[in-house]
Amino acid sequence: MSSASTSTPVAHNALPPPSVPSAGRSSRIAPHSHIKGLGLTPEGLANVDGAGFVGQTNAREACGVIVELIKSRKFSGRALLLVGAPGTGKTALALAVAQELGSKVPFCPMVGSEVYSTEVKKTEVLAESFRRAIGLRIKETKEVYEGEVTELTPTESENPLSGYGKTVSHVVVGLKTVKGTKQLRLDPTIYEAILKERVVVGDVIYIERNTGAVKRVGRSDAYASSYDLESETYVPLPKGDVHKRKELVQDVTLGDLDAANARPQGGQDIMSVMGSLVKSGRTEVTDKLRREVNKIVKGYVDQGVAEVIPGVVFIDEVHMLDIECFTYLNALLESPMAPTVIFATNRGNSLVRGTVDIVAPHGIPVDLLDRCMIVKTEQYTREQVGKVVHLRSIVEGLKLGSGVLERLAAEGENSSLRYALQLLTPASILANLAGRTQIEVEDIGEMGELFLDAKTSAANIGQGGFDGGKMW
Ligand SMILES: Nc1ncnc2c1ncn2[C@@H]1O[C@H](COP(=O)(O)OP(=O)(O)O)[C@@H](O)[C@H]1O
Ligand SMILES: [Mg+2]
């Protein structure tokens, strides 16, 4: 096989990769990247520490039961309600449930107060979240170049338009598979896509021939390190030729399809195929558009091209919803294509918003509460806080000096696990400023002077007025 192919095989005017998860969503999940599941044994018992989860064994086992119910389709029309103090792992549990349901199961987190907007109806916000939590796995066979990146060399040339600037005229990419290597000379737009995916030498990528879309599959496992926990995914060196036909699996959500079709733009990928079918220049996702998308999706499913994957919608601070939302939720839970619904709250008895006199447990009306299975999370011990801080320091690639872990564990026990975790990043900045690569106890001490934890702050104010209506 020739390794010096210098053709320009990929079309100009490349389109960006079709589905990019919204930045807001991924940044909300990032603090939980050490969580890989519920960490249960096949019998459903919780390993003391497993899958990145420390302690909280009762709640994890209870969630394991829920996962079984969902998998055996006995959970429809119901919801899981997580109750517990802030920072006790409610969001982490919800994410772990989604992970236990399968890889790439959509997880759509929102906060109750998000429904209050002056532009969009409350029920619309809820409906959209539900659509974003229903995944669609689409299989298509496409012509691609795939391999481990061995070379990534942009070639610059004088820009003829501006006297002094330089532009990238093309980029040379070397791709390696088990069978051989190939050098591609590619259009600068593809270089932009490569930069966007943050591809570096040693990553396994593929480039779609027709669209020029670049997808980073993961890091080649030749580069794997010995950590047990890392946010990186390692993949084997691809087999076969660099240039081949490959069955691509694309994961989108109904919400993505709604949005893509609300602003049709034309193109060749599946998102805009649908766009051209429902072309009308709409800019808003309407019920009618949703029904049309559903119809097309059903067609794809019937043809065996796509598979529906119900995900998890997670509504944090559920007590912030009002009676209108709760009523609508009852209806949503009943719909045939509903995702799994998980609520979380840290409130005890409170007034149901939007009513003047209905006080209910967790501020949730009893008819909805009736559908909920309730799981309580416990406070963490100092030792458990220490373990989680340790896990996070590995994932974030931070080195801790002696005594730092103990110190952070103590901080966490006094205030909350989240507070302890949140000290990590600023502490590493202080360490950097001091010219160290390792966080030392003095950095934590300095932070104590700079910032207050919630309890100290409340005590300073004098009234401790933050606890109104809370159970804990
Ligand atoms: N038992 C646990 N094991 C490991 N990490 C945890 C655990 N509980 C919470 N965390 C982590 O602590 C942080 C705060 O937890 P979170 O789930 O956001 O709390 P909550 O939603 O109850 O306020 C997150 O980064 C989360 O991943
Ligand atoms: Mg939370």
From TrEMBL:
Keywords: Activator, ATP-binding, Chromatin regulator, DNA damage, DNA repair, Helicase, Hydrolase, Nucleotide-binding, Nucleus, Transcription, Transcription regulation. It comes from the Eukaryota. Its EC number is 3.6.4.12. Residues 76-366 form the AAA+ ATPase domain. Its main location: nucleus. GO terms for biological process: chromatin organization; DNA repair. It is found in: Nucleus. Residues 1-29 are annotated as: Disordered. Pfam families: TIP49 (PF06068), TIP49_C (PF17856). Residues 1-10 have a biased composition (Polar residues). GO terms for molecular function: ATP binding; DNA helicase activity; hydrolase activity. It catalyses: ATP + H2O = ADP + phosphate + H(+). Gene3D superfamilies: 1.10.8.60, P-loop containing nucleotide triphosphate hydrolases (3.40.50.300), RuvB-like helicase, domain II (2.40.50.360). SUPFAM superfamilies: P-loop containing nucleoside triphosphate hydrolases (SSF52540). One of its GO terms (cellular component) is nucleus. DNA helicase participates in several chromatin remodeling complexes, including the SWR1 and the INO80 complexes. DNA helicase which participates in several chromatin remodeling complexes, including the SWR1 and the INO80 complexes. The SWR1 complex mediates the ATP-dependent exchange of histone H2A for the H2A variant HZT1 leading to transcriptional regulation of selected genes by chromatin remodeling. The INO80 complex remodels chromatin by shifting nucleosomes and is involved in DNA repair. Also involved in pre-rRNA processing. Belongs to the RuvB family. This is RuvB-like helicase. It comes from Collybia nuda.
